[in-house]
Amino acid sequence: MLKRIGVVVLCSTQKETFLAWTTLSIIILIEPQISIVAPLYNETESLPHLVSRLNAVMETSPLFIEVVLIDDGSRDSTAALMQQLALTDARYHCVFLSRNYGHQIALTAGVAASRATEALFIIDGDLQDPPELLTRFYEKYQEGYDVVYAIRKKRKENWLKRAAYKSFYRLMRAISYVDIPLDSGDFSLISRRVADVLGQMPEESRFIRGMRSWIGFRQIGLEYERDARVAGEPKYSFKMLRSLAYNGIFNFSEYPVKLITRLGMITISLAILYLIQTLIKKYFLGDVPQGFTAILFIIILFSGVQLIALGMIGEYVLRIFFQTKGRPLYVVREVIQQQQRQSTNRLYTSPAHKPELNQII
User: Fold this and answer.
1) 282 to each of 271, 278, 291, how far by Cα in Å?
2) Would you say 37 and 123 are in contact if contact means Cβ atoms under 8 Å apart?
3) 3-class state of residue 154 by DSSP
4) Are 34 and 138 in contact (CB under 8 A)?
5) Is 162 in a helix, a strand, or coil?
6) CA-CA distance, 266 to 62, in Å (whole number)?
7) Residue 127 has pLDDT above 70, yes or no
8) Torsion angle in degrees (nearest 10) through CA of 311, 315, 316, 321
9) Please, which residues have CB within 8 angstroms of residue 48's CB and are 6 or more apart in sequence?
10) What is the tens place of the pLDDT at every residue in 135-151?
11) Which terminal Cβ of the chain has fewer Cβ within 10 Å, N or C?
12) Are 219 and 147 spatial neighbours (Cβ–Cβ below 8 Å)?
């Protein structure tokens, strides 16, 4: 953020004493108080609407605000529009990732790129999260809350998606060892210290709303009505939603591992009961069961339980496999800040380590 001020300068020399007063006009770089962070992927249709509403928010707010837009490897003209915007408006700070990494990683890159001294306001680029709510969120921040998360009291999606989201959040509430609020997504305002802690967390399979809850500090929710997309089609496919749900379940719950133990105990109990029944029929009733159907049932039952157990263990092993590779979470292709293409070291690091990454200037 740039601010022009007047400065009075006192000049003197050793040879002769005199006072010379002059007023200089200088430019001072002021760190923004708030960073609005929005990841984008193929949002050519919605980006003009987003910029218009963000400009209105910044023009009416007394706060110094920057907007951090992250291009998550878009295949349409989103990146070109972002470049044009960032080169003409110093309030916009644009980060271009080298490929599509997914929403959660793009959001992580935006948090790392932000320069806010007070708080970060995280929204979706499709305007389902109204940026005009910044004032309400910031008021709660001023009351001492480090995390102000949004609670969706009403959604404008089809009934199947609404039912799936509702079921997932209640499942997470039941099995998670972290208190994850019901019906709250990534839309939130987080303090600078929460953002710094979030950047130090090295998870490769990220579930930011769970990580945000795990960090702690004072947190509060604000209800809002989630809008429909302003333009374009949803970018979260069923496969992506399933992957996000898996990250939440396997990263923030011990239940899958404990469920394997419980299934094992249940199958052993069933086997013992069946053995007792067989012995009673043989020695007391003189009836030896034929056994083909029973054996087939037991084989299928045990095989199914074993495959489920292997699948659950595999989810944990898969996450360990990717985590131990030690790769950076993302690679930045280009950065435009203060209307200039420039490199910023903190953007080229991951929580795991600081590699030397290629950049295009």
Assistant:
1) 17, 6, 12
2) yes
3) strand
4) yes
5) helix
6) 62
7) yes
8) 120
9) 81
10) 999 999 999 999 998 88
11) C
12) yes
Helix, strand or coil for residue 34?
strand
Amino acid (one-letter) located at 216: G
Over the chain, what is the mean pLDDT?
77
Beta carbons within 8 Å of 333's beta carbon, 6+ residues apart: 96, 97, 98, 358, 359, 360
Question: Reduced to 3 states, what is the DSSP secondary structure of residue 26?
Answer: strand
C-alpha distance from residue 100 to each of 74, 187, 314, 330 (Å): 7, 21, 25, 9
Q: What does the domain layout of the chain look like in residue ranges?
A: 32-252, 255-324
Q: Quote the pTM value.
A: 0.72
**In this model, does residue 94 exceed pLDDT 80?**
yes
CA dist., res. 314 & res. 241, Å (int): 19
**Tens digit of each residue's pLDDT (9 = 90 or more) over 45-86:** 888 999 999 999 999 988 999 999 999 888 888 888 998 898
d(CA 62, CA 118): 14
Cα angle 259, 262, 266; round to 5: 135
Place of tokens 């009505």: 225
What is d(CA 93, CA 346) in angstroms, rounded to the nearest whole number?
14
Structure tokens at 295: 């054996």
Helix, strand, coil fractions of the chain, as percent rounded to 5: 45, 20, 35
- In CATH, the architecture of 32-252 is Alpha-Beta Complex (3.90)
For residue 211, how many other CB atoms are within 10 A of its CB? 19
Give residue 353's pLDDT band: very low, low, confident or very high (50, 70, 90).
Answer: very low
